[in-house]
Amino acid sequence: MLVIIGIIIVIGSVLTGFSMAGGHMHSLVHPSEIVTIGGAALGAMVCSSPLKVIKDLIHGLIATLKGGNVGKVTYNQIFQLLYELFRIARRDGMLAWESILAEGHDNATFKKYPKVSNDHHLMEFVTGALQGAMEGNDAANLQALLDTEIHVFEEEHHAAVMAMTRTADGLPGFGIVAAVLGIVVTMGAIGGPVEEIGHKVGAALVGTFLGILMSYGMVGPMAGAMDALGHEEVALRRTIVAAVVGFAGGGSPRAVMDNVRRGCGTGVRPTAKELDEMLKAVDAAK
């Protein structure tokens, strides 16, 4: 949502300033320039990126526009879910997780935490981490396995962000291409009325304007927002890893959650009181 608001502010500020200077909005409307710039940028992205990267880019953009699933509510539900599963394992052994993990998001335990169960990728990571602990990996091996998985996630996300960044970098150049084509068209009408020539020159200059605006005011900032979201998703996964590894290493459920809480970012970290209330709610529900 913040990404959309930011883009609206950028475009609104530019258009408002243009209007205040005496410009007319209709003089900026040239579909041919948009087709030239947008089509060329899209084609360059397609030919420079593997299909997997393009798919990741689309998914990343959708997640970015939605705001991602990395807020404090998600962290709180992760804390409660893991604490509940750790208590089950402490009472019945980790093998008690087998039926729970097999059912996945359909399991009653997971259904209580929709921020986790409704996120396919997050569910896959959580269940994979718990599966690794259940299979008997010691804390060191489990840490290494999950760090490798996070590293792969980071690499794939970075590839998608770089595809977006390269597109942003190329947009000013495609704007110049559109402008040059506009000047070529103008040269063909050089003997015509001054008003017609002025209109065609204006259309050519709009191509340069659109290329720069789309690069620095839209696509570039969206790439930055997608990159930031990726870092937040990695931080969430590292929190999960710290909890699972801490429990696999012999920590008690409550002590593990308190230790993990301290490593969370200040924007999503529950206070000691909040954590205590959340864990008591889980205890009371049993």
In words, what does this structure look like?
This protein has 286 residues and is mainly α. The chain has one domain. 81% of the residues lie in helices and 0% in strands. The chain has twelve helices and no strands. Helix 4 (72-92) runs parallel beside helix 10 (194-248) and helix 8 packs parallel to helix 10 (194-248). The longest helix is centred in the last third of the chain and has 55 residues, at 194-248. The model has no long low-confidence stretch (mean pLDDT 91).
Task: Set down the secondary structure blueprint.
Elements lengths: L1 H19 L10 H18 L2 H16 L5 H21 L4 H7 L4 H4 L2 H4 L2 H15 L4 H50 L5 H55 L4 H9 L10 H14 L1
Helix pairs in contact: 1-10, 2-9, 3-9, 3-10, 4-10, 4-12, 8-10, 9-10, 10-11
